[in-house]
Amino acid sequence: MGMNLLNKFKKLINKFLGLFPSKTPTGRAEFDVWAQSIIDTYDLPTKDADSIKWALATMIMHTGPTKAYVPKFKFYLMISAGASKQVASVVFREIKDAQDEAARKAKEQQSAEATALQVVSSDGQAQA
To answer: What average pLDDT does the segment 1-30 reach?
Structure first.
């Protein structure tokens, strides 16, 4: 019980400290420690460390040329926003696919009805 409370307290302190700019990593070992501190501190949308590290590395590459100090909380927000955008993209695609399928079925039905309808002349002969 005591360790769980201590871990929660450490996480709370790290979240507070994450609000302030901290040095972005400049070495591989430093990057791993830095990334792990973000993974351990925040409730990220995925637990896949490689995916998180990939996202963090990409975000560092896109920071401005003078951004050597960035709050860790900002990286958490960017990962969360990215996950939300990914879900939104899937929803867009599902809706678009359903609309395309409905339009395809309507077109097939219309084509079948046009084929089934035949114009009948006044002498009772079917015309195409």
So the answer is: 92
Cβ 11 vs Cβ 40: under 8 Å: yes
Judge whether 21 and 71 are in contact, CB under 8 Å.
yes
Structure token digits, residue 97: 């696919």
Interval 60-78: pLDDT, tens: 999 999 999 999 999 999 9
User: In the chain, where are the structural domains located?
Assistant: 2-105
Predicted local confidence at residue 123, as pLDDT: 57
Residue 98 CA to residue 89 CA, distance in Å, equals 14
> Rounded to whole angstroms, how far apart are CA atoms 45 and 87?
11
d(CA 38, CA 11): 10
Q: What are all long-range contacts of 121-126, with beta carbons under 8 Å and residues at least 24 apart?
A: none
Provide the Cα torsion 11, 13, 14, 15; round to 10°.
90
Measured distance CA(72)–CA(24) in Å, rounded: 9
State the pTM of this model. 0.72
